[in-house]
Every structure is written in structure tokens, then in C-alpha cells.
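User: Fold this; C-alpha cells only.

Assistant: Input:
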Amino acid sequence: MGKGGTLTEGVLKKIILSYTYVAIWISLSFTVIVYNKYILDRKMYDWPFPISLTMIHMGFCSSLAYILINILKVVEPVQMTRDIYLKSVVPIGLLYALSLWLSNSAYIYLSVSFIQMLKALMPVAVYSIGVLLKKEGFKSDTMSNMLAISFGVAIAAYGEAKFNTWGVMLQLGAVCFEATRLVLIQILLTSKGITFNPITSLYYVAPCCFVFLSIPWVVVEYPKLRDTSSFHFDYWIFGTNSVCAFALNLAVFLLVGKTSALTMNVAGVVKDWLLIAFSWSVIKDTVTPVNLFGYGIAFLGVGYYNHAKLQALKAKEAEKKAAQVDDESGKLLEETSGEKSAKKSESDD
């Protein structure tokens, strides 16, 4: 086989691997969302204890991350001081705990399809909080795009057949806390040169989440669980659910590491449409034409936002390459002029 054939095989292999990573992430994300809905929904498994479920996830992920880092030595731990942990990791852990608690609670009151539509507001929340915390610069065209996404979600909410105000408030609260967490990761960690992969992230953040969640759990859910004598812990259900949650974090690492964060955003849009279709066809949730029309507007807004981000990244890369070329040209000119002056001095001697 010629050189051209080898190159073609290499490109084909990369494409197949990229699609494989996307498929794995979509499958696991899809499974975790539907599984959580199944456990928490009163019409299904009927275990409406979102704090307890999140604590099970965090306890399992903390333990497994500890084994992978300290016993099996699969991943090296991050250099972490007490000061950085308390001032940077702990606030992020608190926000993550609140985000997971509220988002899991929303499954009790809202359909899977409507929750995915509300999640389209994530770019709006991230941009708005970024502007407030002076991490992002205010741009009128970007804000117009954010308003279009919000308008689309508002139409989808207007067309929701089983609208629940408390459920919507929970999901919007989860979006706000998650967006704040994402912005603070950039401010408190990335700016200090600290980067986590999913395993080290769980190793440091999951124990914080567990501790923070235990406070409302003691007040809100523990008394109810204590009085529920009929409940027996199902190790198969909660074990497989926790394994899926941990595997999803590894899939994020694979997808972003082997492709890009933008690929994950695009894959996320595909996953949302699949979940809406599944929610309508299998779970038999009501999806109205107004729902779809509103989400379609939000979908176009999110698509444009991702496109604009891609163009901005390409522009930055082009600037870096141009700067590198200028530096190399300058060094080459210096070397050439140095050689000429050396030769001239030799000839004068």
C-alpha cells in the first residue's frame, strides 16, 4: 500500500475513533439522565430522594477516584496546597453540590424533554455571569444571541403541557449554580495554572460535595428515610447507577481530550434531541408543537453561539501562528546579519 493509502487509513481511523468517543459519551449521558429520572420519578421506581442519590454518586466516585490515584497509581494527583483547596476547590465543590441537588430534584416535577429544553439556557447563564464577574467582555451581538436563546426557551415553556413552577425554579437554579461553577473554575483554578481531569476533579471535589450535601440531607431527607421502613437499599440499582455516573466523567475526559470541548457541545445538542425523542416515544411525555418550535429557536441560537466560539478560537490560533512566524523570521534575520558581519570582519583581517 502506498503512502497515500496509509494516510487515508490514518485519517479514517481518527474519524472512526472520534465518532466512537462521541457515541460513548452520548450513550452514557443519555443513560445517566434516564436512569436518574427512573429512580426519582414517583410513577417509576418511586424513590424521590435527590440529595441521597447525589450523595451515593459522590461517595462512590470519591472512593473510586481515591483507589485509582493512591492505590493503582493510574493518574498523578495535582499539586494542591491547603490555601488553594480552601479558597478555590471548596467553593467549586459547594456550587457543584447545589447544581446536582437541584437538577436531580427537577426530575421529580418535570419531564426529561422539558428539562433538556431548559438546559439550553446554559450558554446564556455562563455568558451573563462571566460578564458580571468581568471574565467576559460585554458584546451587543452576543447578548442579542443570548436573548434569542432565552426567547426560544420561553416559548418552549409556554407550550409545556405539564408545566410545574417549582420544577422550573429548581432547574433554573441548577443552571445558574452550574454556570457560576464553570466561570469560577476559570477564575480560581485555570488562571492559577491548575487543571483537573475528571478523575482528579472527582478526587478533590466529590468529597466536598458529599460533605455539603450531608447538611441538608440530615434535615430534609434523613427523617423521611428513617421513617420509611418498607425501603431496602437496592445494591444493583444504585450500584449500576453510580458506575454509569463515574463512567460518564471518564467519557467526558476521553471526548474532550481526544477531540475538543466544541465537539462535546455539538454532541450535546444531538443528545438533547435524542432525549426529547425518547421522552416522547418511550416515557410517553407530552411534547407539543409549541415546545418544539421554541426549542428550535433556542437550538439555532446555541448553534450560532458555538459557531462564533469556533471562529474566535480559529482567529486566536491564526494570531499565535503569525506571531511565531514573525519571531522565527526575526531570529533568522539576526542570525543572517550576524553571519554577514562575522564574514566581513574575517575579510578585513
